[in-house]
Amino acid sequence: MGSAKNSSTAARTARIEEMRRAEQARERRTRVLTVAAAVVAVCALVAGGVFLVRTQSDGSGGSGGSGGTAADGDGSGRFVTGEDGVRTWKGTLSRTHVAKDVAYPVEPPVGGDHHQVWMNCDGDVYGKPVKNVNAVHSLEHGAVWVTYTGKAPKADVEALAAKVRRTPYSLMSPDDRQKDPIVLTAWGHQRTVTGADDPAVDAFFEKFVQGEQTPEPGAPCTGGLSR
Q: Which ranges are annotated Polar residues under compositional bias (predicted)?
């Protein structure tokens, strides 16, 4: 009888020990799963934070977004006038190709988003206004753009047209939306002149026709729009 009792006690002790080991195993698995879940959650938070920071950084850049409605990425910028009278745009000029009009902050524009097709600028003189989005692409290729209003003397218009016709990487068109009678524009640079005989005309052409400001030097000025 004592032997049977001892056997029963030993079996119960063995079952208890087995149950204790099973419980300990469950606790270990629970701890592992809890730690793993915590690690995954932390990684997700970190990844989300990095994505947010990168997105905000990309959105605040100066290369323009998908729409491209201003001359530079966030519409900010200003002219700084040098001793030579040339106004230089201080601000990043975006260069995204767009299929719609662009609201440029200055007239004529000095750069920014533009149409994928440029105005021919191989000494081309246009008798009617051209679209800014096409002319800006010409500026990107290193052209100088001469614009004038109805207040510009006819003799000056004719003399400037003759200069443009003999100058590759230049174009000319009327623009009654600009403030001054005669304006010379290159990518990121602009100045007004008093007339065709103003020494600033030759100086501007010499410096900016395919000048250092050109984003795409050597790009063509033919094969685009002719009117």
A: 1-11
Q: How many helices (H) and strands (E) does the chain have?
A: 4, 7
Both 86 and 49 in a single domain? Answer: no
Q: Do 31 and 119 sit in the same domain of this protein?
A: no
* Integer Cα distance of 56 and 36 in angstroms: 30
How far lies 34's CA from each of 23, 28, 31, 46, 196, in Å? 16, 10, 5, 18, 81
**Number of domains the chain is built from:** 2
The span from the first CA to the last CA of the chain, in angstroms, equals 117
Q: What local confidence, expressed as pLDDT, does residue 34 receive?
A: 53
Identify whether 224 is part of a domain. Answer: no
Is residue 38's pLDDT more than 70? no
Same domain, 173 and 98: yes
CATH code, domain carrying 169: 3.40.30
Q: Say if residue 139 is in the same domain as residue 55.
A: no
The pLDDT value given to residue 76 = 73
Percentages helix, strand, coil for the chain (3-state, rounded to 5) are: 40, 15, 45
Note the Cα 68 to chain centre separation in Å. Answer: 8
- Would residue 184 count as lying in a domain? yes
Which of 25-29, 53-57, 165-169 is predicted most confidently?
Answer: 165-169
Using CA atoms, how far residue 121 sits from 79, 136, 179, in Å, is: 25, 11, 23
